[in-house]
Design a protein that fits this description.
- Helices cover about 45% and strands about 10% of the residues.
- By secondary structure, it is α/β, with parallel strands linked by helices.
- It has two domains: about 110 residues, Ethanolamine ammonia-lyase light chain (EutC), N-terminal domain (DNA Binding (I), subunit A); about 190 residues, Rossmann fold, CATH 3.40.50.11240.
- The strands form two sheets. A six-stranded mixed β-sheet has the order 3-5-4-6-7-8, with helices on both faces. A two-stranded antiparallel sheet has the order 1-2.
- Strand 1 and strand 2 form a beta hairpin.
């Protein structure tokens, strides 16, 4: 069995165990078992578990896999400083099976983050009602970004009925390009943010969720609810390091005249970056500064330096 056959054999086993089935179903992995095979295996009770009923995991990527290095201690020290895929070694001109399988699994997680929706259970657990933009489905969301910046008429009506106008801060949660990021982070971020704002005596409107949303949808929300600050928590475009990264965009007096320079951003909110609870508390501090200076984005930065 050559290396390629070995790789495909291992991928097939991982598919059977539910690790990278998504990629095969979408045709990202070629040469692996067919979608029909995946569907048949997925129906098995043990599709996502190993022989002992335990979840299947891949070996960690935090080891140096370079063959016969001259200074292993130096490579190990550098490896600990970054989650990037360095010192993975190679087999001829190819990457080793170990890193190849990790690449496929992490790519599958990124694809899922983009194409899956935030679950109703997640919204219910976090007390969020949901509305939608003008986008009709995921394909349109990806092909026509501008539609993700506008609320549909049903959404406007629901927001008007369920949210109080004129609050100092309105929090919105937007799926963006990673549903995984939203599900992984909002349970800790939103409560920490609300607690921090209320501790400062700042009024907070009713948080809600926007499906198929882009960053710019916050401008329409700001104009609709006439709030002082809109805080938008949105899923970032996933990568191979993590599919769980979320950003917070904050704008003072968001509306039709808002430009990108008006947005204050806190990015890389996830367990491997800025922890969600810490990010929520920091946002409350930033919002207080916005209200004090009546500004955000570049204008706020200049005011803070002055």
């Amino acid at each position: 069995m050559n290396e390629q056959e070995l790789i495909q054999s291992i991928i097939g086993k991982l598919v059977e165990q539910g690790v990278i089935g998504t990629l095969v179903e979408q045709g990202v992995i070629t040469g692996a078992p067919s979608a029909e095979t995946v569907a048949a295996v997925s129906a098995s009770p043990s599709a996502s578990q190993g022989d002992a009923g335990e979840p299947v995991t891949l070996p960690p990527l935090n080891e140096v896999k370079v063959d016969k290095p001259k200074n292993m201690a130096a490579l190990e020290a550098m490896r600990k400083t970054t989650p990037a895929r360095i010192f993975m070694g190679r087999c001829g001109a190819r990457q080793k099976t170990h890193s190849f399988l990790h690449f496929q699994a992490d790519h599958a997680a990124a694809v899922d983050a983009v194409f899956m929706d935030v679950s109703d259970a997640c919204l219910a657990e976090n007390g969020l009602f949901g509305v939608q933009t003008l986008v009709k489905d995921k394909d349109e969301f990806l092909m026509k970004p501008e539609l993700g910046k506008k609320l549909n008429e049903a959404a406007k009506k629901t927001i008007a009925e369920k949210c109080v106008k004129g609050a100092q801060v309105q929090i919105i949660v937007v799926d963006g390009l990673s549903s995984t990021a939203i599900e992984a982070n909002i349970a800790d971020t939103v409560p920490a943010l609300i607690q921090g704002l209320k501790a400062e005596g700042i009024s907070v409107g009713t948080p809600f969720f926007i499906k198929y949303g882009r960053v710019g949808v916050m401008d329409e929300v700001g104009a609709l609810l006439d709030c002082d600050v809109v805080v938008e928590l949105v899923g970032e475009r996933p990568g191979l390091i993590t599919a769980e990264s979320m950003s917070a965009y904050m704008v003072y007096k968001a509306g039709k005249k808002t430009v990108e320079a008006d947005r204050t951003i806190i990015s890389n909110i996830h367990k491997g970056g800025t922890p969600p609870a810490e990010a929520g508390a920091h946002m409350a501090t930033v919002v207080k500064q916005m209200l004090s200076h009546k500004a955000s984005g570049v204008t706020l930065s200049e005011a803070m330096r002055g």
